[in-house]
Fold each of these.
Amino acid sequence: MKLDPIFEVKNNSLFLIADGSSVDPSSFSFVEFKQSDIEFDEEVYNEETLAAWREDFLAKDEKGEFVVLAPHASMDLSNALNFERFCNTCNHTARRVKDCKSVAGFLFDETFLSENAESRIAEFVELLAKKHAQYVYFVQKSVAEKLNIGDLLQKSAIVIY
């Protein structure tokens, strides 16, 4: 099931496609989780938590509320296999909430962006876009400034808030 996009990113800001109005991402709920909360072992996931999130997110759909999934790696992402597992965990999470219009997208944290940010963003977005092209991606302004990656985020159409 593919959902139509609700948002678009222009100049690192978020807008509703329906009317072009600006959206403040700080009004969204950010669902923070550690990779290890969802991935018990390679390709073994916490389906109970994911099912509970789905129910919660479907309820938010009806209220017109939005969430951003904010994963934190539990492994060293400089290791290519660990990075792949992290991406797979996020992709599996997206699969379990695929019918929830309330899920706006994902937040990239400092750990994710601290090394090879351009290739990590590209790989992550490419993986998720296969089934979740409606998602937008977010970075906190303080992280973008600390890592000095504003230009990269501009060309990657990432929301900086």
Note: The chain has seven helices and ten strands.
Amino acid sequence: MLADKTLLGATLMVTFLSGGTVGYLARDSRGAPAARPYAVETVFRHQLDELRSSGYDAAELDEARGHYEDYLGEYQVWWEQFVESHIDNLDRIDARLAEHLEELGARHRARATDESAR
């Protein structure tokens, strides 16, 4: 039971961090806001598969899926509050990632140019 909670906690943390990162990287883009990169079927695949293998029928699985959706929704409210209260820190993290990726891209371009010149 503890391992399941630890796995769930780690999965949720990674999911929310990646969702927040994607959301903040895409926030200035034109168009609709980016969708969160998680779904109940992805986050709780293991648990839903266990219920399915235990013989839960389609209606029971739908009810369980609904409970998991509510659960994720409650976490999403908390996550959004956290993100709003730490926006400056997250902007610095986003800027640092963009800087590192730009440096990596510059090194790659220099290496690729060097190799093509040979």
Note: The two ends are 59 Å apart (CA to CA).
Amino acid sequence: MRTTQVKIILAILCIQGIAITAFGQTYFGITYQGSTFSKGLPNFKNEVYKWNHLTYPNFEDRFEFNNFFHGMGFEWGTYTRDGMHVFTGWENKHFSTHGSGDYTSQGRNYEGDITVKIRHNLFHTFGLGYKLSDNFTFGVCPIDIGNFKVLKKDTKSTDNPDEFVQLYQGNTGLFSQNTTLGMTLYADVYPMRFFRLRASYYIDYIPTELGIAPFYAYQLNSFNIQAAIIIGNKK
């Protein structure tokens, strides 16, 4: 993540922290979620098909894609005495696929051991919700800033064999193809005071352009189911 992005997020966290601590008793949440992109990721499915059938057709270990992503996160917020829910947080969702074997390129034989990873980090600048009861809350995070990358590592490569590099090269500034902007709708259920389940839907405002061909973009709308351990008072 670029320095400018980090500075913006830190500034938002400071402002949000002041607001959260002023409203009432705070809590901290450690989260884990599973996600699926509602529109799928047809661009990446096309990449996997191309690798398996055109680029590396003789790989013994073939690439797979199943549209299931998962990852950890954290959340910091408060429930006020009048039933409002205010929070900020960060979460990660990722998927990786692997292929290996022999292949031929430009008349020469090579050995490949390739891992490709899709990663979407999401920062909720602020979430606003309302508590319908002690055990149920619904709300919205209207401004979610994210960072989306498709990364590739080939351990048999002579150039940076142990490093992940971007599969799609291009500008990586604040408003580049790596930066996402969207919103999240969510509903929370507390089966226990210290344990929360969340169902949410992330809406991507602008498809993530990759700059490699017209209309070749990733639409990152996703369904998410999250479990969280809550440390502190949620009331």
Note: The radius of gyration is 20 Å.
